[in-house]
Every structure is written in C-alpha cells, then in structure tokens.
Amino acid sequence: MTPDLFGDLDAPPLPATQPLAPGAVLLRGFARPDERALLAGVDEVLARAPLRHLITPGGFRMSVAMSNCGRLGWVSDRSGYRYDANDPDSGRPWPAMPAVFLELAGAAARRSGFEGFAPDACLINRYEPGTRLSLHQDRDEGNYDWPIVSVSLGLPAVFLFGGPKRSDKAQRVPLAHGDVVVWGGPSRLHYHGVLPVKEGVHPSTGACRINLTFRRAS
Ligand code: SIN
Ligand code: FE2
C-alpha cells in the first residue's frame, strides 16, 4: 500500500475544485486521467527542444530548467524576457503543442469559467529538488484577456499565490501530481511563485517536478 493511499483512508477528501481568489482556482487531480499522454508529450517535445537553464537579464542562470512548445516560446537572455517563435538554441521553430496539451488546457480553462482558451505558448519547467521560482507576475504576453493554466506533474510543491502587489500576502497552496491551477480575469496579474521543491522520487517523473504553463502570448 502506498503512503498516499493509506493517508486517504482517514483524511477527509479535499474538494476537487478550490477557489483561490476571484478568477483563480485549483482543480485537484484534473490532469490525472491524461498523465501518461502528457508525459509522453513532454518527452517528445524535449527530444527536439532540450531543457536548458536560461540566463536572466541581470546575468543569473535560472535554476529551473525550461523548454517550450507551441507557436511561441518564452525565453530570457541578457537582452530581456520575450516570446520567440524560434528556439534560440537550435534556430528552429519550437515543436508543435501535442493535441493532448491543447485539449487539457482548454478543458481546465472552461471548467474555471474561461470558455474558448486556445493557448499559443506552453512553457515546460523542470524543478529538481531544491529548485524554486521566486515571486513574479506573468506579464510578457501581448494581452491579459486569457488566463494562465498551470499543470503540475511529478514531485509535489508549494505554490505561492499572492495578489497584485509583490508585498501582498501569498497563500501557500500545496500542489500534487495532476493538479491544475488556473488564474485569469481579476487575478491574471497576481504575483506567484514556487517554494523550493523537497527531495523525493515520483513514480511518474523520478526526482523532479514538471510544470506546464499554458498562455495566450499573442
Ligand atoms: C510559472 O509561474 O511559470 C510556473 C509556476 C509553477 O511551476 O507552478
Ligand atoms: Fe509565472
């Protein structure tokens, strides 16, 4: 019996849908039915656009390893943050978004009240134990009309979800394999981040957390 399953016996079940703020919701386990297809998609994308540690405009190497799929990919270098149609490492367009990615992102957005979400960018983040993502806003997109859809796979993490100001108190939201967070509308520009991922090994991903972030970048 796995510790997970054992814990479920006496803990009251957590609600499948948990509001975080107006326009923001945690969909627990929403991606679980698609986990194998999603991870196969991640492998396909990464075979063509390998993970890399980007350099921030300030010259620091990001500890989260990143890649992208879709028409546009998020990149960072000494000249700034931007979306680019080409992978700067290969000079080629980013791999297409696997169909299961598009379907899942659209379904999660719909479930959260955002009908018609058609992301053109999917950022793939890999967190090894000890890796964190400091509080930031997602504001490199051309418009803020569409939500962010964020899918967690593998090792658990604590997601920080704050408010419109960096100094606003952030909620600590534990995220497990298959959880999806959607934030848009009034919380589209809320600060968010990820606490350092704890040591561990997950049966689906090994010793890492994979996050897929879907956005409408143009
Ligand atoms: C992000 O903010 O880009 C990713 C958030 C996460 O990994 O959960
Ligand atoms: Fe973000």
Outline of this structure?
A 7-stranded antiparallel beta sheet has the order 1-2-11-8-13-6-3, with helices on one face. A 4-stranded antiparallel beta sheet has the order 7-12-9-10, with no helix packed on it. It contains 3 helices and 13 strands. Helices cover 16% and strands 30% of the residues.
Written account of the structure:
The protein has helices at 3-10, 35-48, 99-111, and strands at residues 17-21, 24-27, 65-69, 73-77, 80-84, 121-127, 133-136, 148-154, 157-161, 171-175, 180-183, 192-194, 209-215. By secondary structure, the protein is an alpha+beta fold. The chain has one domain (17-215): Alpha-ketoglutarate-dependent dioxygenase AlkB-like (Jelly Rolls). The strands form three sheets. It has a seven-stranded antiparallel beta sheet, covered by helices on one side. Bound molecules: succinic acid (SIN) and fe (ii) ion (FE2). Succinic acid binds next to β12 and β13.
Features:
single chain, 218 residues, alpha+beta, Jelly Rolls, 13 strands, 16% helix, binds succinic acid, binds fe (ii) ion
Question: Which ligands, by name, code or SMILES, are bound?
Answer: succinic acid, fe (ii) ion
Number of DSSP strands?
A: 13
Alpha-carbon distance between the termini?
A: 47 Å
The H-level CATH homologous superfamily, spelled out, is Alpha-ketoglutarate-dependent dioxygenase AlkB-like
CATH fold description: Jelly Rolls
